[in-house]
Structure formats: C-alpha cells, structure tokens
Design brief:
- The protein is mainly α.
- The protein has a single domain, classed as Amino acid/polyamine transporter I (Up-down Bundle).
- Helix 7 runs antiparallel to helix 14.
- Helices cover 64% and strands 1% of the residues.
- It has 19 helices and 2 strands.
Amino acid sequence: MSARNGTANNAALNNGVHHRSTTSLHNEPTDVPANGSIKNADPVKKGDDETVELKKNIGLFTSIGIIVGTIIGSGIFLTPRGVYEGSGSVGLSLIIWIVCGLISLLGAMCYAELGTTIPKSGGDYTYILEAFGPLLAFLQLWVNLIVIRPTAQAIMALTFGYYMVQPLYPDCEPPAGVVKILAAICISVLTMINVLSVKAATKIQDIFTTAKILALTILIVTGIVQIVKGETENFEEPFKSSSNNPSQISLALYSGLFSYSGWNFLNFVTEELKNPFRNLPLAIYISLPLVTILYVLANAAYFTTLSEFEMMTSNAVAVTFGNKIFGIMAWIIPVFVALSTFGGVNGMLFTSGRLFYVGGREGHLPEILAMIHVQKCTPLPAILFTGIMSLVMLISDDVFALINYVSFVQWISIGFSIVALLYLRYTKPELDRPIKFNLIIPVTFLIFVIFLLIVPMVAVPKETGIGLLITCSGIPVYYLGVVWKSKPKGFLKFMEHLTRQAQKILWVIKPEDKPEESKPSSKAAK
C-alpha cells in the first residue's frame, strides 16, 4: 500500500512548482522537467507567506454542524420503531432515547479529551495508532476504506434518491434505476464541491444541518399542537406493556445508540479546527444535548398521532406522520428527509477524505492520498477516492448487507479508542491534557461499549463473524503493503511513476511538515 521509497517527498512537484497568487493556475507555466523527476524543494507558496496546507477554516458553528449534521441522518425520520419495539411502551422508549443521548455524551466527552491530548486529524485511527501501533490502526483504516465509509455514503445517497422522487410515486415504489441515478448525482456533486472548496463544503454542512433542525422543529411543534388539541391517548398510561425482557431492552438501547452514531466525527478533522482546544469540546457539549432534546421531542410528537400498529409497521414514521397531519402538504416530509440525507452525505465525504488523507500521511495508504491541491488546499486525491468508492458501491445490490456486517467493527474501534485513552494516561502521564475527566467517565462508557459488542455477538453471530473476517482480511495487506520494505525495484519505480503522473494530473503536492500546535497552558479540567 505504501510507496514511500522513491516516490514524491514532502516538498513540491519537481523543482518546486511556484505560482503567483494573482495568476490563474491554468495560466501559470509549470516548471516540470521533461522527465518528470521529483526533487527536494522549498514548500510551494500560494503567496508571499502562505504555504500549501490544510487550512483552519472550521469554526464553532460549523463544528456543531458537522456533529449534528452527521448524527441526524434519515434514521429519526424513518425507523425509530427499533427503540419502541424493544421497549414495548411509550414511556420506556422515551427514557431509552434519553439514556442513549447521555451515553453518547459520555463517549463524546472522552473524545474531547482524546482530541485535545492528541490534536491530530484521523479520529479513532490516530488514537489507536498512537497507543497500540500500526497494525491495529491499519485494520481500523482498512475496514473503513473498503466497506464502512463507502457503503454508509452509498446507503445515505440511495435514501436521498428515494425520498427525492417519492412524492412523484405516492402509490408505488420509485423505480430503482431512477433512485440509483439520483444517488450517483448526489455523491458526484458533493465530491466535486468538497474537492473544489473547503468553505463551500462547510457552508453546505451549515445550511443542511439547519434544514434538519428546522424539519424536526416542524414535527415537534406539530406534536405540541396535537397535545393542545387533546391528542394524548398514548400518554395516559405511558408505561403500559413496558418490556421487562433484558434482551429486548438491550436491543432497544442498541437501536437508539446506532441513531446517535456520528458524535465522534469532528475528531477526524481536528487539524482544521480554529482553536481546537476550545471549539472541539464546546461543539461536543452543545451538539449532544441538542440532538438528544430533538430526538426525544420528535418521538413524543410521533406518539401524539400514530398508533402502536403504525409505529411498529411503518418503514418511514415521519412520512406516515406527515400523511396523517399535513394533507396536501405531506410532500414536505420526504423532501426534508432527502435534504437531511444530502447533508449527511456531505459530512461523511468531508470526514472520510480526511481519514484517508491521514492514512496516506502515515504511510498506510498510497502516498498520493496524502497530497493536497496546490491552489484549493483540499485533500483532493483522498476525497476523489472516497467518492469513487461510494459510486462503486451503488452498483452492488448487497450494499445494505455489507454495512450490517461491519457495524459491529465500528464499536470495536470506539472501544479501542477509549482503552487508548486509559492506556495513555498510564504510560504517558506527562502528556499535556487540556481536558482531563474523572476516570469514572471513560470507564463507564467502556462498560457500555463492551455491552454493545456482546449484544450483536449473541443476536447476530453470523454477521458479526463476517464483519471480523472482513477486518482481518487487512492483515496480509498490511504486511505486504506496509511492513515489506524490500519490494522489487521495478515495482517501486512503477509506483513512483504513477504517483508522479497523478501529481501532474491532479496538481497536488504533500504539504509542508509543521510542528505540532502548542496547547493552552491552562490547567486541565477535572
């Protein structure tokens, strides 16, 4: 996988491809020798004092948008029935939604400590690499590379395509071909936006996160109106028929926590945050309570209108709710679902590109993925790669099965990150920790993670086993691509040639290595 020996180094293309900030890239002469050799050079300059690197363009508002926009996908609009089915009652299901929000907040607090102790992009991959070395980190990267990220993006894009055309097919299923075409357009458009401009990508995230909150607010306000009108039948005996089966309640918790997934995604872009030691934890502290409140109130709104049977059988709870309440305007709910998933795809592409960029920078993926565009300052190859992989996944009819196989692995990654937090506290107590919580918080969350690993092993052992096999398939790839340094000279020259040509075509270089950002000198919060 890595082709570090003989490939382009951390400097510029060739003899340092310089261009003036006032001149278009396309009009600038390219100082590329005929043989395309790549030499050590000074960092490429965009202006008199600006080097080519990923910029700190993400402020607090966008940070909140990344977390909230990634967590709120289509699940809360479509299938909150998993929690209700496992809990058996309105009251217990709402309590489970609150508990899941609190558990997610505990996890996010642990990641606030990790993100400020190790202020590097890459999230779980970076933390596992720091604590346990390259093999476990590579396996986490591998399963994200080949399955988790591309399939999740493809599924969300398919949901976008389905609900964009659903109002045109009120009495039947939309044609599968039309849905896939719209999904491909969604991924392609957002990939190009993320390639061309970080600011445009973050602006889209801000806008569509606001749209999601607006959609849930409309549902909540409608629910309040229903309650004022006396529609409180489901709340008269809220705990009637509550489940006392531990396995059912466990599955309800598992479903609820799955709906909160994405709370750790801001840690994948830590290096691009403005003032990360303030904004990373603050965004977490604002986002998780906000999402929890929206989730609980939205579910309460559903119960003002929908019967138990409708909650248990509907494949799109919010759409069923809208059809019963909004009449001729019922089409707005499918549109809001589509907008929600569009923003979700953007958030996943944005963070996925950074994950694969960091993997390339660490030598675990081809070096071209560790390069950024000399003018746009975006990790262009990494974003293109994740976009193309997502498009490939659209071809498969088994994309939903794939994500089921590896959902279990996501919790393994989170578990290893929490263990890394505890391990680094013991082995590297000298590390500066701007945020340091009482040990009871990471230990409590780790117990919940272990629970979340046991549940699928008991409930769906086959899918869990397949997920582990997919993950372990990265072991031979790691030893062949990363550990094996004495590769044939012909292979190394071929990889060097490919990297050089890709640099010319994409106009990308490796950014200048910079010293780690200094941390605030204030005492840790305990």
